[in-house]
Amino acid sequence: MTRTQFLAGTALALTLTLTGLSAGPALAQSPDRNYPLPYDSQRGVFTFAAGLERSLPAVVQVTTLGVSGGPTTGQTGPTAVSSGSGVIIDAREGIIVTNHHVVEGGQKFRVDMTDGRLVEAVLIGSDKATDIAVLRIETTGLSQVEMVDSDTLRTGDLAFAVGYPLGLDQTLTMGVISGLGRSGMGDAVEDYIQTDAAVNSGNSGGPLLDSRGRLIGINTSILSGDMGGGNDGIAFAVPTRILMFVVDQLRATGEVTRGQIGAILGSLTADRAVEKGLSFVRGALVEDVVPGSPAEQAGLMRGDIITRVQNRPVANAGSVQATIGIAAPGTAIALVYLRFGQETTTTVTIERPSVATVQIGLNAVEAWGANFREVKPSDGRGDAGGALVAAVEGGSIAARQGLVAGDRVTAVNDTPVSTLADLGRLLGGTGGITLAVMRAGEDQPTTIILSAPD
User: Cα 69 from chain centroid?
Assistant: First the structure.
């Protein structure tokens, strides 16, 4: 049975139940209030067009212009290097939201409106960690979407993705919200809406709408078993809860500043859960706590497992970072954590990011957005020394330079690293920082430059 047949059959069955009439007279005679789905009595069809059509003019195509990799004559201007979608959230100011990866590396940006106009756009700012970018255009006659708080969403709600996929003109697809609070694509700022609405190449940066045409998220990525990146029915969107925090900061300052609590966090993987004798793999493991930090003041200790933050279940370290990272300094955040099997609730106060590049704890080191810990026998590295990368924050310097979780640091500036203490001491020095790391499956060390010499 196709999805269309299923929806039509379900709607008809519900209609008959509510009205007690046969299918023919019900469609022709019954008033709209008798139908469980929006109904156009004039045409005799179920439709969501009335709500969605108000938002469609606000959905635009974004083309990023840059210098191509091929030969140039010196007179060739920027050419199209990527394209995606975007949505106008402020018609008066001409503010468009799209994805960071849509505009990354661009020199100029062009916006294709639904009425056929082509308008040049200016990049206000972008944030790699959440994959959000903000553009501005100057023109008249713009429409904007209405926005809704993504915290009101429920799994099973209908969702509509709008964009410009696969070189096509504006396209609308429908699905349901198949999951909330999704993370696990890394340890970045993640709290995705998962949907099965068809999202393909070109949909990036376009809106995810509810059945009334209101913005609930920005489509950012898909999971695909197809080497070509085809749609397999699982897509992710940045929810408005995170979206507006990022947009407001980008509009105000052009960059995003995130809060912190002074806890070095890692994701609770299956291997680490077995090591700790746990029967679950969801949570954020406290690798270490910076002395004097809000985390220490809240009573958090190394080995605690954070399971809920602001009454939200925690999937991994990214779940915690998503909440802490969008909270203003001074905000009190409720945490639930496990210690030796006992559940405890505490409150931690968000502070401004530390100006220190390197934070050294007793059992972990945090530097340039990467968390390091001792190499353990359970890591499967034998007797190898060095320090292991436990997690890398999305959008951080470490992430941009290519450091990934699982890397083993063997040297800093050609000085061997045998222990975590060695790493902390060497990272705390002056001058440039170059790491030699051994990566799984590789025989030769990889060079990672975290900072250049002064």
Answer: 29
User: Sign (positive/negative) of CA torsion 343, 345, 350, 351?
Assistant: negative
Of 50-64, 167-181, 388-402, the one with minimum mean pLDDT is 388-402
Of all residues in the chain, the percent with pLDDT exceeding 70 is 81
pTM of the predicted model over 0.85 = no
The answer to whether 122 touches 110, Cβ cutoff 8 Å, is: no
Closest CA to 130 of 105, 162, 97: 97
Pick the CATH number of 48-66+79-254 from 3.90.1570.10, 2.40.10.120, 3.90.180.10, 3.10.590.10: 2.40.10.120
- For 227-236, 251-260, 310-319, 438-447, which range has the lowest pLDDT when averaged over its residues? 227-236
What is the CATH number assigned to the segment(s) 358-451?
2.30.42.10
> According to the model, what pLDDT value does residue 71 have?
57
Report angle CA 178, 132, 174 to the nearest 5 degrees: 30
* Cα–Cα distance, 364 to 103 (Å, whole number): 36
Q: Which of 38, 46, 55, 39 is nearest to 213 (CA)?
A: 55
| Residues whose CB is less than 8 angstroms from the CB of residue 267 and which lie 6 or more positions away in sequence, other chains included | 184, 187, 284, 285, 316, 317, 318, 391
Would you identify the CATH topology of the domain 263-349? Pdz3 Domain (2.30.42)
Active site residues: 101, 131, 204
* Element of type H or E holding 170: none
Asked if pLDDT for residue 277 goes beyond 60, the answer is yes
More confident site: 377 or 368: 368
